[in-house]
Predict the structure.
Amino acid sequence: MDALVLQLLNGLDKGGAYALIALGLTLVFGTLGVVNFAHGALFMLGAFCAVAVQQLLTLSAQVKDPSVTFFEAFKEVPYLEIWFGDAGTAIIAWSLPLSILIAIPVMLLIGWAMERGLIRFFYKRSHAEQILVTFGLAIVLQEIIRIWFGANPIPVAAPPIVSGSADIGDWLGLGPGVVYPWWRLIYFLFSAIILAAVFGFLQFTTYGMVVRAGMRDRDTVGLLGINIQRRFTAVFGIAAVVAGLAGLMYTPIVPPNYSIGMDFLVLSFVVVVVGGMGSLGGAVVAGFLLGILQSFASMNEVKAIFPGIDQIIIYLVAVIILLVRPRGLMGRAGVMES
Amino acid sequence: MERTSASRDLILMVVFTAAVLSMPIWLAPIGAGYPDLLQKFAIFGIFAIGFNILFGLTGYLSFGHAAFLGVGSYTAVWTFKLVSMNILPAIIFSIILAGLFALAIGYVSLRRTGIYFSILTLAFAQMAYNLAYSVLTPITNGETGLRVLRDDPRILDRVLGIEPGDVLPTPELFGLRTIGYEGFYICAVFLIIAFFIALKITRSPFGLALRGIKSNQSRMNYAGFNTRPYTLAAFVISGMFAGLAGALMAVTDPLAGAERMQWTASGEIVLMTILGGAGTLIGPILGAGIIKYSENIFSAFNEQNLHQAFSFLPDPVQDAAVSIASMFVGEGWHLTLGIIFMLIVIFLPGGVMEGFGRIVKWTRKPPAPRATQEVRTAG
């Protein structure tokens, strides 16, 4: 029982990441009609926003170490600590939450540049060409990051106050000893909040209503004198921010390297297909569902019955879904069903 | 529609054969005349020809073709281990097994079209890749890769009285080595055969049906034409080509690893085909050659080479030029590849072959009359 609950929780944070990326993918597909293979690169760029902020804040100078008296010893001390003392140390400790503030405008800008600079020329071209050009863009983006930050994963620290584990055993009445990392809980909550925010925006604001109307029937909305194109570009920007934040918050769980986006992209695509191309709710449901399924499949008891199932479960589900219900779990009938 | 006739095809075939066989000579001036690279040209040429039979003719974009390459490689190495070091059984088994895999995967994947087909093939390839790394380790030898050992059984060789010596046995074709130029010529013969088959397929009614599927599958269906067997046949054939390419990889270097099946490897073959020109006969081979050649050239550069290359510049400018250029060479070769690829898809979706076509058109039509025409429309 304990194990089941733990696996469920394990699935939630990964599922949250899948859901966030898949939401952006399906939003872009629903509005612009573009299959964006560079969406994983946005996740990766978000993660490297956190890395960049951390590196910037910990820029350090060599200072003489007074604790060593035998010889002249130097140690690296971040400028922030030299200038602000303990306040500086605190700022460094909270670099990850701080980087969110930087990442939002940066990702918005990147998303806007990507849409205006490349994607808009591909609305009318075939899906195959869209896949190919965004695949090329993804390679370019991740290689630029590799040149800048190197090929090795770079660890990013969560604030020390949440670095430990939560005693969820006590809360859930499972008895002591069942612990779960704080940051993973935070990640799940964070993804839930972001998802709620995006849905709220689309569902309860006039702007979002127009976007949804545009997804249904772009031409009619255009005939009503609304510049739907500008709103769709804004949606692309939002999708970029969502993917970027998903990557940024994931850094304490898995240290990012330049290819982390590709790993998530393939899985997120499968998530979108399972949820239903263009269906926002489907992307979220399928994201969490597949995240949880994957973590259940990696239990030893399951692996003993089906060896290797943890490696293929997501793809297997996708194959079955595509064959028996091609529109996906929550896809609208007739949308990309062939 | 391009004009075709039997005699033109014969000329094409002869020119192609001559060009492939003389590759060591005419590629030598650009520094590509050595066997290792030539083998790669031929192997990836075969792979690209096969991929093009599916993607170029039917328009189905498979993102999982590397899986068949991997299956071919593993089968070849296992044949070396169990049957014989002669490459013929290895190649035959590889083609058959890759074909069977393609039949199974194609039967399922081809129920869908468009991006769903791409995702399905991608899913199958990723499953194969992940399994090769985890539970199938007894068959694939996991991360280490599958290799030939000295005391493998090799039944056929034993029966024929070929005993393993003290050294590690190497693949051979009736005594012919498979490395160096011999290796290249073995691959080249297969490349020519593969090209011949592709040519015959393209010109046949079967090929015409495939192109019909590409231009409008629903219309084909409405006309009472069952397209499924045709697409499946194309898928299996291209899978067998991939299996052959995989087997030849194992032949020239008897080692098979799972990284050959990764989806980025599938992406690479898509790239080659697009770069050369999907749907054309020569294009994919050209694309494979260009990518493998540039990979070789670009990744060989390092800072010292660059300093030499830019030595005519004054020092500060030289340093700047070197630091900019070094982003695109050596380890940064993938950046160059990505940029080239984007440019091709954006500006020249028909690939290099379309570029040739445009140049030919441009030279044939003198620019002068076009200018007057523009003036006329403007006025």
